[in-house]
Design a protein that fits this description.
The longest helix is centred in the first third of the chain and has 38 residues. The chain has 132 residues and is mainly α. It starts with a helix and ends with a helix.
Amino acid sequence: MLTANSTRMVDRRRSRQHLDEAAHSFLPIRLGRNLATRRKALGLTQAAVAERLGVDTETLSRFERGKHVPSLLTLERLAAILSSTCAELLEEHAPQPASEVLAMQTWLAGLSEKDAEFAKRMLKAVCEHLAQ
């Protein structure tokens, strides 16, 4: 026989389960939105990020649309590619758009050390020339 007290406990349990399910279903969407926001802020295409990650462009698209959730290892790699952290990508609020410096840092990260140094020297030379 169910008492009023046991009925309340069952109702609380169901309510908690419903909240857990809602939070679980929202996580992929939130993560996807944050991934897309961060990628766009850095001026990167899905194809460029997917290539660096070693997955198909469609796979990255599924992550961004919240249709699939990356593994923790893949999420860590995505965070590194996007010059972010896993925590920032999972935050309720989307990460702030990157500054130009962060965008350039991300571009340079994809180059060899020698090519990155060359690019920095060229940028410096162009800036000094334009400042005159």
